[in-house]
Each structure stands twice: as structure tokens, then as C-alpha cells.
């Protein structure tokens, strides 16, 4: 994708559509174990990024990622804003210089660690980190976009059996078991959207 | 340390603007205008939630050279407050602390301590004594 700037606006649009189409589902998941706002929060963030897609398209990718992260921080609210924001801001900051593929493999683990620090969380605590670690491991193995997306979906489903240890869902204790974490769900959804987009642009 | 006679500022961050404002009212009732005070609550659409831009603004409005103590309710309020503090210029960010204390009791006790001229660390410690 690097160098082909026209694809970033398209990718932003695809993410916005995916979140809009699933906003109610994300809210329903959040209602079950949280405060029910994850879908509307993510939708607000995606709309704000979408509104800036023209400017973002004209920026080098690392700077665009940083800017997207900042926009998400300022608009999503809830804990998801700082978590997704930190992921993208750190990715952008660590992707300056070098080749696109090396940069991604180098930036992703560090950005995921920054998300873990921000949320004071780790793997297995029923959060979007569970999906991020799965994505990271497939990216480091240089798996295909389709495989990365599949691993993300599986990791999100694995949160169903987990007991929430972070955020409001942790107040429910054992009652959080049996529900998919909404953050893990949105993360898998966005991963799937991005991987499809990259997969299709590689075929084209 | 008391800086040029300045009192530590108090910021209240709640998911609910009603709770944030009500807590601020209780603080005012206790210490009047002797302590810089600001509150914020609600997401960008006016619903329940927290908002980094509003938190940055509240910290600026309650700014004191003696520093600012921030009181938060639930998880997202804390994470968003941390993010807001990182967006301040570093010289200011170092003088803003998030208190691990109950929102209402913490803010009122901290303000009482601040109004007596206590330093930021003392103000925060007093509020945090409330948390087991
Ligand atoms: Mg929520």
C-alpha cells in the first residue's frame, strides 16, 4: 500500500462502513457486559476520521496514522479512544523511515505494547489486546491478509470464554463469561476490513 | 511546596456532567473561591462518557503553579485523563496528578487541604488515604 496514497481514503471509508454496519451489534455486546456505548463511540470516531480523509490522503503514511490516532483519542471517548489512539499514534511514530513491510513488523509489536501499558492490561484479560496479540503474531510470521483476519476473528471469539479483568466488565466477575468483548469484536472487525482491503488491492 | 502563594487546583472528571458539576458545587461550598476548580463530564455528543479535549480544557482552566489534582470516576475517565495530561506541555504535565480516591469525598477533602496551602503531593496523599 505504501506509496499508493489513493488507497488510504478508500480504506478509511471501508472501516467507517464496517463500523456503521456493526454499530448496533457492538453496542449490544457492550450492553451485555458494559455501558452499551462501544458502537456509537466507534462510529463517532470513524466519522471524524472519515471527515479528514482528504487531508490524511495527502500525508505520508506514518504521519497519517499518527493523526488518525489523535482524532480517535479526541472523539471516541470511553477507554477505546485512548487504546485505539495509542495503537495508531505509536505505529505512526515508529514507522518513520525504512521499508513499509519492515516498518510494520517493527512498529506493530511496540505499538501493541504501548496499548498494553495504556490499559495496564495483558493477554487473556478479555480486551482488544487479545486480538492485537493474535494479529501481531500472524504479521510477524508474514502470513497472508486472509490468515491474519481469520486469526483476529478467532481471537475475538476466544474472549467469549474469558473472564473480564479490566474495565467495567470486570465488575461482573464470572458473569462476564459467555459474552464476546466488544473491543475485541471491533478490533477483529477492523482487522478483517483492513485485510480484505489490502488483499483486494494486491490482486488488482 | 507552596509556589508564590498559589493553591493547588482541583479538576473533577465524571462520565456524567451532572455528577461532575454537583461535585464541584460541593467543593465550592467547602472552600469558596480559594482553590482553582474546574469540572467536565459527558462525551462529544453530550451523552454519558468522557472527552480528552474537555479534560485538557478543565486542567487549563484550573491551572495553578502549585499543580493540579484530578479526580475521576470510572476506568475510561482515568485513561482519558492520562491521555489529556500527556497532551499538556511537559513542564505542566509533571505538575498534574490523578488521584486514586472516591470522586466526591476525594475532591472535597483535597480541596480543603489545598485551601490551607498544602503542596500537591500532600493534597493527593490526603485524598488517597480514603482508598483502602
Ligand atoms: Mg462502553
UniProtKB/TrEMBL annotation, chain A:
Entry-linked Gene3D superfamilies: 1.25.40.340
Claim: Transferase is one of the keywords in the record: yes
Cross-referenced SUPFAM superfamilies: DhaL-like
Bilayer-spanning residue ranges: 68-89
A single MF term (Gene Ontology): kinase activity
Keywords: Kinase, Membrane, Transferase, Transmembrane, Transmembrane helix
Domain DhaL: 6-196
InterPro entries for the chain: DhaK_L_YcgS, DhaL_dom, DhaL_dom_sf, Dihydroxyacetone_Kinase
Annotated SMART domains: Dak2
Name the record gives this protein: Dihydroxyacetone kinase subunit L
Species: Mycoplana rhizolycopersici
Top-level taxonomy: Bacteria, Pseudomonadati, Pseudomonadota, Alphaproteobacteria, Hyphomicrobiales
Gene (UniProt): dhaL
UniProtKB/TrEMBL annotation, chain B:
Subunit note: Homodimer. The dihydroxyacetone kinase complex is composed of a homodimer of DhaM, a homodimer of DhaK and the subunit DhaL.
Full protein name: phosphoenolpyruvate--glycerone phosphotransferase
Classification lineage: Bacteria, Pseudomonadati, Pseudomonadota, Alphaproteobacteria, Hyphomicrobiales
UniProt cross-references to Pfam families, sorted A to Z: EIIA-man
SUPFAM superfamilies named among the record's database cross-references: PTS system fructose IIA component-like
Summary of the function given for this chain in its UniProt record: Component of the dihydroxyacetone kinase complex, which is responsible for the phosphoenolpyruvate (PEP)-dependent phosphorylation of dihydroxyacetone. DhaM serves as the phosphoryl donor. Is phosphorylated by phosphoenolpyruvate in an EI- and HPr-dependent reaction, and a phosphorelay system on histidine residues finally leads to phosphoryl transfer to DhaL and dihydroxyacetone.
Keywords linked to the UniProt accession: Kinase, Transferase
Catalytic activity: dihydroxyacetone + phosphoenolpyruvate = dihydroxyacetone phosphate + pyruvate
Organism, as annotated: Mycoplana rhizolycopersici
Molecular-function annotations in GO: kinase activity
PTS EIIA type-4 domain span: 7-132
Keyword DNA repair: no
NCBIfam families found in the cross-reference section: dha_pts
Entry EC number(s): 2.7.1.121
